[in-house]
Automatic annotation (TrEMBL):
Keyword annotations from UniProtKB, A to Z: ATP-binding, Nucleotide-binding
Entries under Gene3D superfamilies matching the protein: HUPs (3.40.50.620)
Name of the protein in its database record: Universal stress protein
GO MF annotation, one: ATP binding
Assigned protein family: Belongs to the universal stress protein A family.
InterPro entries: Rossmann-like_a/b/a_fold, Universal_stress_UspA, UspA
Keyword Isomerase: no
UspA domain ranges (all copies): 1-139
Origin: domain of life: Bacteria
Pfam families: Usp
């Protein structure tokens, strides 16, 4: 295994997936890890409020990157790259997996909001259905 994509939204389930990514990185000392955070693309009429949303999302991405680099994956820093993208999360995750030619995609089973949990991990399910690469879905506790 040479390249791994770990998609996170900062949720507890995503943190569990990050721990699994760390465990896998331990087993593959040459592997590179791409950590991906995707902001949901919003379709506001006339883009009202979009700048405030994007500013908050950029801050959220920076916070997630800091947490991942300093707490979860600190010993893998030289082998870790962080990416922030905007779009439909499941589609972007699959596109980045293709673009980066990864060997494995790791995602949490449920996201950070109640709507996502209601749809039984709609992003992780969509990634499972669309990805050309193997997908590891890590359950939250």
């Amino acid at each position: 295994m040479k390249r791994i994509l770990y998609a996170t939204d900062g949720s507890k389930s995503a943190q569990n997936a990050g721990q699994m990514a760390a465990d896998i990185m331990n087993g593959f000392p040459e592997a590179q890890l791409i950590v991906l955070y995707v902001s949901t693309e919003l379709a506001y009429p006339y883009n009202v409020g979009i700048e405030d949303y994007m500013e908050a999302e950029r801050a959220r991405a920076a916070e997630i990157e800091t947490n991942v680099r300093e707490e979860l994956l600190s010993k893998f820093s030289p082998r870790t790259e962080f990416r922030y993208e905007v779009g439909r999360p499941a589609l972007v995750i699959c596109e980045v997996a293709d673009e980066e030619d990864v060997d494995l995609v790791i995602v949490g089973s449920h996201g950070r909001n109640a709507i996502d949990r209601m749809f039984l991990g709609s992003v992780s399910n969509a990634v499972l259905q669309r990805s050309k690469q193997p997908v590891l879905v890590v359950k939250g506790v």
